[in-house]
Description:
The chain is an alpha+beta fold. The chain has helices spanning 123-127, 130-140, 143-146, 183-188, 197-205, 226-233; strands at residues 23-30, 40-44, 47-50, 56-59, 62-71, 79-87, 90-95, 100-101, 104-111, 116-120, 149-150, 154-156, 254-258, 260-268. The strands form 3 sheets. Strands 3-2-5-6-7-13 form a 6-stranded antiparallel β-sheet, with no helix packed on it. A 5-stranded mixed β-sheet has the order 4-1-14-9-10. A hairpin with a 4-residue loop joins strand 9 and strand 10. The longest helix has 11 residues, at 130-140. Residues 1-269 form the GH64 domain.
Amino acid sequence: MSKAPAQKTFWDTSNIPKAKEVLTVKVLNRTNGKYPDSKVYWTFGGRTRSIAQQPEVDMPANSAGRMYFHLGSPTSKYSDFIEFTVGADQFNGNTTRVDAFVLKIAMRLHSADGSNLTVGETEKVFAESWASTFTRFRAAVPAEFKHLAEGTDKILSPGGDPEFKAGGKYANYFASYTKAASTSDILGCAGPLGSSPNECAQLNRHVTAANASKTSAYYRAAPANFYAKFWHDNAIGGRAYGFPYDDVNAQSSYISHSDPQYLLVAVGF
């Protein structure tokens, strides 16, 4: 397998064509030479291309869209995505770890006023090996969360993990902390918490209403969503989507701006 060419800068802004639609999306190969451009793919609007074939997408206005990224082949198990809503003159979107971590993803939105909004995993995370990320996750989280790192394929969110659901080994993980909802409903912000974002966020972060706005108080004690904590600790600006209502108190990786010009999406391994 040939190696990807050396990069000059992480956020490569060269050769970005001006959008004819709303904005240009450019996909960056940041796999540290593990995959050449011919093996880094994107899928959007029913089309799949390698970035050797087509590194940019002229993004039209669309509602509740996703753009997927794949390494090795378009049907590879190494696949992840970003989410967005694109208006006629507006971009709203995010990276997400609500379901799982598969690929290292970061994105930077550049708009006509010169602003650059950047979210996702840090460059330090991109620079380390795939195995190192998994090893660090297992070392950083308590015993109840270690099994979420499934071999070297992905790190599953506890919200979708059977062990935290009824009948699972950790179904009562939050039972000593609250009776307001089941562990599964807390981690998934479902059931009685489906319409209570503030309460769900407080439970995942192990904080009270009194200190819910103090980020320094988050995840300081168990039980808490330590999967989410890990991604916040490894995210640009500490912002990540580790559970469905992680946008409470502006902690998620959501970005929004009018008059967008281009979006850079870094894909790593």
